[in-house]
Design brief:
Two copies of one chain form a homodimer.
Chain A lengths: L2 H61 L3 H73 L4 H70 L3 H25 L11 H16 L2 H4 L10 H12 L1
Helix pairs in contact in A: 1-2, 1-3, 2-3
């Protein structure tokens, strides 16, 4: 085979290999970007789910607490839920603007791969025709007709290869341009989506921080103490009015016990419990009467 | 049993039950907050891992690309890595300032639970003593010595219960105060940690956005085309200088094939490929000679 023909054939081969590399690289890395970003998005969705569960628990908890803390925790839970709404938007936008376009590469790359395969087939046919021609020239240099036919076939194959290679070059050029454009767009979209989410999160958390800062812990604690004192108070109020035992009370130690109790209380439990007198009837009288009856029977 | 004594006993009982509720609620919700926030933190760590993998793939990909895109993708990957460093700081701070303090509640609640249990034992003992005394009074109202002993025991039990109940009330009061303070501090810390992370992420992504905006796609595409043309050029340069076949070239169709090739190229591939002439010797001459020899043998 003449050197110039060899060069043409080999040059086309390395040209196609270079294009194949471009596509293979894109396939490999875009595939990995796609699966990693899909996984990143799924993990973001799981983070959202976990935070949503926390929101639910916070609201349940708020309902068991005094009004001050209840309002604070509810507001905080609402802010936390708002962040999750933004996270949900982040997930949806990542899916639509990052993962979907990356997935589209699968189809695009498949098409370009098919083009490369076709081009290689055409190239191999050319080589086969050239080898056939070379063989004929060496084995039957006098068979003009056969050689002429083989020359025509080789020429046709060469034209086909040229057309196919140049078509492929255009395809790969367009593919590369699209790849670079999409890459920039996809990652810009990724960054924008993340940036918007994080900016919204900063905004909402700033409000959540204020909510927690404004929480009046002292008032809440006073509520708690009042509630607890309500229960103690029922006890103490009784005790304080019982210092002169009623005629119906047969146990003389009741008042004594009460006195030692209040003395003890004054010493150990501090002012707020000692001075408490507003009785809250926490225990139904029926129950007391019932038990009293039982004990007296 | 006298009404006043009954009231004291029952009031103490509901007092202890209210305190038990406070502790049970704290145990339940703080336990859930702890496990949910630990899970939230683990999921954040997984998000960081996934993004770190993406960073690694981006750098690998950058190394396969032309200088312009390589620099852009590397800078972008660095910014993405920076966000993960902040996420790592977020994870560490959540563990130290949110999860650890919530875990400490386990120990604290266990201690308070033990105090409640002890108080209930003391309460039950008082009730037992009172019942014993009541029984004695009904069955042997004349046995002054026995009744007197039982009265002393009941009195002692009553004093114990009072002391124990008030000690418990103080414990639970302190527990509640600590709970509210810790709750505010832990959630404020949570919000601060999240806020700092999101703010840093906004900052870094803003820079990443600029990096992607500044990417000169055209220059990159020109690089790609030059690289591809380098390989085509090798082909075309040969073809253009081969229009007059050298005496050593026996195949007359070589030049013909070349002419149709260049014509086709000119029509389909556009200016940049047509005008290219700087040949890059991509294929070692030894290989060509070797193959040439093989074909000529």
């Amino acid at each position: 085979m003449p050197l110039s023909t060899m060069n043409v054939v080999l040059s086309r081969d390395s040209q196609v290999r270079a294009m194949e590399n471009t596509v293979t690289n894109a396939e490999r890395y875009f595939g990995q970007f796609c699966s990693l970003l899909a996984s990143y998005t799924r993990k973001t969705a799981r983070l959202r789910d976990k935070a949503d569960q926390l929101v639910k628990q916070l609201i349940d908890f708020a309902n068991t607490e005094n009004p001050e803390l209840r309002a604070t925790i509810r507001d905080f839970a609402e802010d936390l839920a708002k962040v999750q709404d933004y996270r949900q938007a982040e997930v949806e936008r990542l899916e639509a603007k990052v993962i979907s376009p990356l997935k589209l590469y699968g189809a695009q790359i498949k098409q370009t791969r098919a083009d490369i395969k076709k081009c290689k087939r055409v190239q191999n046919n050319e080589i086969k025709q050239l080898e056939k021609l070379e063989k004929l020239r060496q084995k039957s240099p006098s068979d003009r007709q056969m050689i002429s036919q083989a020359e025509t076939s080789a020429q046709r194959a060469s034209v086909d290869t040229n057309r196919s290679t140049h078509h492929l070059a255009e395809t790969v050029d367009a593919f590369q341009e699209q790849k670079l454009k999409d890459l920039r767009r996809i990652f810009s979209d990724f960054v924008t989506i993340e940036m918007v989410f994080h900016a919204k999160a900063v905004e909402v958390y700033s409000s959540a921080f204020q909510t927690l800062e404004n929480y009046d812990l002292e008032r809440d604690l006073q509520d708690f103490r009042a509630k607890m004192r309500g229960i103690y108070g029922h006890n103490e109020a009784r005790l304080l009015t019982d210092t002169n035992p009623a005629p119906s009370v047969p146990w003389p130690l009741a008042s004594q016990s009460v006195q030692s109790t209040t003395a003890h209380q004054g010493k150990e439990a501090g002012d707020e419990e000692e001075s408490e007198a507003d009785s809250v009837e926490e225990i139904p009288l029926e129950d007391l009467k019932g038990q009293q009856q039982r004990h007296r029977d």
